[in-house]
UniProtKB/TrEMBL annotation:
Domain N-acetyltransferase: 1-156, 182-337
Keyword set, alphabetical order: Acyltransferase, Transferase
MF-aspect GO terms: acyltransferase activity, transferring groups other than amino-acyl groups
Identification of the protein by name: N-acetyltransferase
Domain of life, per lineage: Bacteria
Source organism of this protein record: Micromonospora endolithica
Length: 338
């Protein structure tokens, strides 16, 4: 039974059942990833940036004889942003290969089509059944990144302290748990705009103008994801020369997500990349004692960043692929196959 589902007013039992399915999916497909927790899961599924919408559907088993509602065995949601819909689908391992995944994608794709969006994008984790699934329904691979994971128990903290101090004269580092202060937002946005021209095809929205940046930090907080920011400030100009962002999600607080790291072109060559990332890890060690790992995603061509990550102890883990499809073609193909 597939129906539209709004996590905002779903029962706690439904949220808990979805969490069970998500954790069964992780155990089957990504057994080394930490299980998710219920903390802020509803908010994670509900909150979006201004101007974006997320629409969800669930597949629920039949109620039991005593009327107890059936488990949530599958879910799909699509985030409508810009001119694309970003899709996520999951099906409990016990009920896979019965056509449920395809049915869920068709329901979401029909809506995306009706809403006038042209294409659908999806992030697909390498070496999981999702690769064959999306390829079988006509998605094509656009872009591949490598996910790497750092196990904090392997870190040499004294070496890291030296790295954090190894920054060129004329710069200093500042750490901002929760996000940069408002007086630095404009300089922060200017630094982020640096990489705007590098169209890396990412599905994750980036924030380049000050208001969008404030909205994005606010959205992270509402979703239960705590940002930490380390900035390298150029003392002479007051400009942000480099920045790195890590988020500790309430849903999996033992594994943080390393987001953007940017060193502004004219400030490259002063050890800023290494220093800000090392300083970030030192901060996380004291501020988040429950944290065990940090994961990050990099373009395979980004050799400089991969080298610094390797020095810090990050180990490549999985391919992370972006696939996309033309919505009209997808709907016609799936309808024809029914
Ligand atoms: C990808 C996924 C949604 C597929 O769900 P499903 O219900 O098993 O998919 P369907 O039964 O509709 O399969 C449709 C077609 O996809 C292909 N396919 C699906 N799984 C496959 C697999 N393991 N191997 C090869 N082909 C596969 C087949 O062509 C299949 O058709 P067939 O069964 O008639 O041969 C499911 O495996 C899943 O939830 N994966 C996790 C998704 C995810 O988000 N992972 C990342 C975070 S953990």
């Amino acid at each position: 039974m597939v129906r539209e589902w709004d996590p905002r007013n779903a029962s706690s039992a439904e949220i808990a059942s979805l969490l069970d399915t998500l954790n069964a999916v992780l155990a089957a497909d990504l057994p080394e990833d930490p299980a998710w927790r219920e903390n802020s899961l509803r908010e994670y599924l509900t909150e979006v940036m201004p101007g974006e919408r997320r629409i969800s559907w669930v597949a629920q088993a039949e109620p039991a004889a005593d009327g107890t509602p059936g488990a949530i065995l599958g879910q799909v949601h699509v985030l409508l942003l810009g001119d694309i819909g970003v899709l996520e689908v999951l099906v409990h391992p016990d009920v896979r290969r019965t056509g449920l995944g395809r049915t869920l994608v068709l329901v979401a794709a029909r809506r995306v089509y009706q809403e006038g969006f042209r294409s659908i994008g999806v992030e697909v984790v390498g070496d999981t059944p999702a690769v064959a699934f999306y390829e079988s329904i006509g998605f094509t691979r656009e872009y591949v990144e490598t996910r790497s994971v750092l196990d904090l128990s392997t870190v040499d903290w004294s070496e890291l302290t030296a790295m954090a101090g190894g920054i060129g004269a004329g710069y200093h580092l500042e750490v901002f748990p929760g996000g940069p202060p408002d007086e630095l937002i404009e300089a922060y946005a200017r630094a982020k705009a640096e990489v705007r021209d590098v169209d890396d095809g990412e599905l994750r929205p980036s924030s380049y103008d000050p208001q969008r940046l404030r909205d994005s930090l606010d959205c992270l907080h509402r979703r239960g994801m705590k940002p930490y920011i380390v900035l390298a400030l150029h003392e002479q100009s007051g400009e942000v020369a480099g920045l790195t962002e890590v988020v500790v999600p309430a849903q999996h607080p033992t594994r943080a997500d390393q987001y953007d790291t940017i060193v502004v072109q004219e400030h490259r060559g002063y050890g800023i990349d290494r220093a800000i990332k090392a300083r970030m890890l030192l901060e996380l060690r004291s501020a988040e004692p429950g944290l065990a790992e940090v994961q990050t995603w990099n373009a395979q061509a980004n050799e400089a960043m991969l080298k610094v990550n390797a020095e810090l102890g990050y180990r490549p883990d999985r391919e992370w692929c972006e696939y996309s499809v033309d919505v009209a073609e997808l709907v016609h193909r799936l309808d024809a196959g029914r």
